[in-house]
Amino acid sequence: MKTFENKVEEYAELVINVGINIQQGQTLVISASIAVADFVRRICRYAYLNGAHFVYIKWIDEELARIEYELMSEQGLGYTPDWLVKGYEEMASDGAAFLYIISPHLQNMEGIDPIKTEKAEYASAIAFRSFTEKLTSMQVSWTVIAYPTEKWAESIFPYMVPKEGLKQLWEEFFKIMKLDAENPIAAWEQHIEGLNKRAALLNDERFRYLHFISEGTDLKIELPNNHHWLNSLETNVNGTLFICNMPTEEIYTTPLKTGVNGMVKNTKPLVYEGHVIDDFTLTFKYGKIVDCSAKKGLDALKGILNKDEGAKYIGEVALVPHDSVISASNLLFYHTLFDENASCHLAIGHGYISGLKEGNRVDHESNINSSIIHVDFMIGSEYLQVNGVREDGTVEPILIDGKWAAKFLD
Fold this sequence. Notes:
With 410 residues, the chain is an alpha+beta fold. The protein has 14 helices and 19 strands.
């Protein structure tokens, strides 16, 4: 039987070999909390064992971040050093891979003025826009993963003793990440193969638009003629495969910027820059969000929508069955990486050109959205019906009561 240490060790190996898929002589850039330093050391070890040339680590200290938001001047909050931006752009140009290890620390932003976090996030997004474009256009390899901590467990299991909550979180985490499998790497390869097959089935249909129907939701999303369904398995400009998000359960594509009409209601809270936004609705007309409401976090929601003009449109539509392994846990993880893979979701902001057919992307800027942000929010549930509508008007059920219709089962 595997021990806890065995599983954590296999996790580090999985991330390097399957997730980021490090290549001989490649630089690896890691962004991680100081709370997970031991795991970062494991990651570095596997990176070097598998040929990494150099590993650069950008440490994040959540407690220090709070001090900065509390005490830093307005000028300081809006400052991003040029040398830092240039360093990341240079590493990306040299073919580095980028690994982001998140450890949600929701309580850390309680009481912080959303305007402060919005100002800092906006300044950073503008400064790193060129670098971010390299990521979103899949020019370089990048992977986002998570690592359980007591602080994260406290958000998910608030009524449990912290150590017991962390133990429970690890148990769920190991299931979701397939680390309970005898061979996690083989299990992930099989999982990705299944996602590939389902994406291929959707691509064969060439739907003109999707119709989402549920309580509080009646939304039609038009798709570009050259849309392409895919999953988190991507290929960079050098032909290297990598997985953007681990875990991943989604099949997604890029919608037509001006082709979204109707109303949508969230089904899980959106956590953005430490602020919780919940029980909200968005109303669309010709792609643009023309009205919004929220019972919790309305100011934070408006802050997202006012980032730039593109923040009033969506850039992604993703299908996730309600019976996914994450949804089956019946847990709210308070982080998009997990919650979006328990639910169908949309993304406010930037659209990925990878959601368009290869070789047919010349006019993509007029068809899909561009923004400095890409914020996923969840709309799926056991009551959601998603229909695909073809050019001739015929309708094909895709999800029924939140689950894949028989035609789209692999």
